[in-house]
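lol forgot to send this yesterday, sorry. C-alpha cells for the thing we talked abt
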C-alpha cells in the first residue's frame, strides 16, 4: 500500500502490552530499527499520568510498568530521513507521536478520540495534497430510505449504471439500530443530479435529506429488523 498510495494510515497496536506490535511489524517490513525516542519519553513524562491502580509508579525506578510504557516510545526510525519528518506531534499537550514511515505510512492510535484529534491536527498537512481541498468540486445528495439494503440493491445497481457516464457515484450505507438507511449520490454535475431527486426518492421509497438521521424518530417499533442490513 505504501508503494501504491500517497497516504496510508494504520490504527491501533501501539500500546504497552505484548499484542501491540504495529511499530515492530512496520519496522521489520522496512528493515528499520526500533529506537527509544527520547523526545516522546519526555512528553510522556510531562503529559501522561499513572493510572490510579499504580500509586507507587515512578519514572525513575525500573519496573515492568515502566518497561511497558517505554514500548510506546520505541519508534521505527530511518537514519537517512530527518527526524522531524518521521515523528510529528500534532498538539502541544498530546504526547502520543505520529510516526511516519517510508514517507507516507502514518501510524495512529486506535483510541477513537485520540485518532480523531491527530487526524484533525494533520489537516494543514493533508489539505494541500488533495486535488479538491475544500470539497467544492463534489456535490453530495443524501436519501433516507426505510428499506433494507438488500431490498434496494437491484434498483441501485441499475441507477449506478445509468449515472456512471455522468461521473456520478451511488453509495448505500446501513445505519445499525436505526429505522432508516442512507443512499448517496456524489458527483459534479449538480443540475443533472438534482433532476434525479424525485426518481431516486421513489426508487428507494424514501426522501432526500440534508443531514443523515434528520428524519429519525424515537418510535423503535418502526425499526426494520432485517439481519442483512
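and heres what i got for the seq, position by position
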Amino acid at each position: 500500500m505504501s508503494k501504491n498510495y500517497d497516504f496510508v494510515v494504520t490504527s491501533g497496536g501501539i500500546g504497552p502490552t505484548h499484542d501491540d506490535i504495529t511499530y515492530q511489524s512496520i519496522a521489520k517490513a522496512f528493515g528499520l530499527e526500533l529506537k527509544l525516542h527520547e523526545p516522546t519519553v519526555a512528553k510522556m513524562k510531562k503529559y501522561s499520568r499513572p493510572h490510579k491502580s499504580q500509586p507507587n509508579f515512578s519514572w525513575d525506578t525500573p519496573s515492568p510498568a515502566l518497561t511497558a510504557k517505554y514500548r510506546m516510545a520505541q519508534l521505527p526510525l530511518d537514519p537517512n530521513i530527518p527526524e522531524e519528518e518521521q515523528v510529528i506531534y500534532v498538539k502541544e499537550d498530546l504526547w502520543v507521536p505520529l510516526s511516519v514511515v517510508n514517507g507516507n505510512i502514518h501510524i495512529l492510535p486506535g483510541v477513537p478520540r485520540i485518532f480523531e484529534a491527530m487526524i484533525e491536527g494533520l489537516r494543514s498537512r493533508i489539505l494541500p495534497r488533495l486535488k479538491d481541498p475544500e470539497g467544492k468540486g463534489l456535490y453530495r445528495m443524501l436519501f433516507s430510505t426505510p428499506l433494507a439494503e438488500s431490498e434496494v440493491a437491484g434498483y441501485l445497481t441499475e441507477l449506478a449504471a445509468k449515472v456512471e457516464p455522468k461521473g456520478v457515484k451511488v453509495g448505500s450505507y446501513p445505519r445499525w439500530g436505526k429505522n432508516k438507511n442512507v443512499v448517496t449520490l456524489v458527483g459534479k454535475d449538480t443540475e443533472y443530479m438534482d433532476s434525479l431527486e424525485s426518481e431516486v426518492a421513489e426508487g428507494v421509497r424514501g426522501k432526500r435529506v440534508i443531514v443523515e438521521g434528520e428524519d429519525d424518530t424515537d418510535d423503535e417499533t418502526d425499526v426494520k429488523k432485517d439481519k442483512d442490513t
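The chain has two domains: 8-129, 139-222. anyway ping me if u want another try
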